[in-house]
Recover the amino acids of this structure.
């Protein structure tokens, strides 16, 4: 028995609201991740700002240097798993976006499962931890640079408007891609003693949060997400000479 039109409309709004809540949740997690590590570590345990986000896994307890519980480890691992789960569960607009987000979610969990070596210096080289961290940012940059433009065809036929969103996504994608590269270079140059590594990683995480927030105005104008929920969206065959991937919704 089919739902009444009013009930069906309310259900679709509920599903759409759930989808948006997941996106907003990832924004909150992304913004909170570096802030919580710094603030909780400093206020709760007296831990000074670490050279990088990853250093919080083995950040020592200042009042008891021999303590091996490392109080910020739970925060570091918990936040990474939460972010990874959000990325995996978030439904991309295209199949390519889904694959990239799923890989990013897996990499976030693997970053937590394979921590950097304790008291690691430059001679440690690129570890599994560092490899998965770089792949995480590469996947997110791919989404911003190559997947976000798939919805631009559903904006009003205003090339200036489309160019503005296209430029915004690509800039954020480049920032996400350069952030781990900058952190890696700084790691080798400064031997993990520079807090600029933490700031570079912080900037990269917040860039993805900015990308998710930046999608809101575009979707509000085009209504592409709601159209997809109704099953009325069909991708154009080409956009700028490139065949778009099939839509996953």
């Amino acid at each position: 028995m089919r739902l009444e039109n009013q009930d069906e409309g309310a259900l679709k709004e509920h599903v759409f609201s759930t989808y948006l809540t997941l996106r907003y949740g990832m924004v909150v997690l992304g913004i909170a991740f570096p802030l919580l590590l710094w603030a909780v570590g400093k206020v709760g345990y007296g831990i000074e700002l670490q050279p990088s986000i990853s250093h919080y896994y083995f950040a020592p307890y200042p009042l008891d240097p021999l303590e091996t519980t490392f109080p910020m480890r739970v925060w570091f691992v918990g936040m990474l798993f939460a972010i990874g789960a959000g990325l995996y569960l978030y439904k991309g607009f295209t199949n390519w976006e889904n694959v990239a987000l799923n890989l990013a979610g897996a990499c976030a969990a693997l970053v937590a499962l394979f921590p950097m070596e304790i008291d690691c210096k430059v001679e440690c080289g690129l570890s599994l931890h560092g490899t998965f961290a770089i792949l995480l940012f590469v996947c997110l940059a791919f989404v911003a640079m190559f997947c976000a433009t798939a919805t631009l065809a559903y904006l009003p036929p205003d090339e200036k408007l489309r160019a503005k969103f296209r430029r915004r996504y690509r800039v954020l994608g480049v920032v996400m891609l350069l952030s781990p590269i900058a952190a890696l270079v700084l790691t080798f140059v400064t031997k993990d003693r520079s807090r600029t590594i933490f700031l570079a990683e912080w900037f990269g995480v917040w860039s993805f949060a900015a990308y998710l927030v930046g999608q809101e105005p575009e979707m509000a104008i085009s209504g592409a997400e709601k159209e997809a929920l109704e099953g009325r969206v069909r991708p154009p065959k080409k956009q700028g000479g490139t065949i778009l991937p099939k839509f996953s919704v």
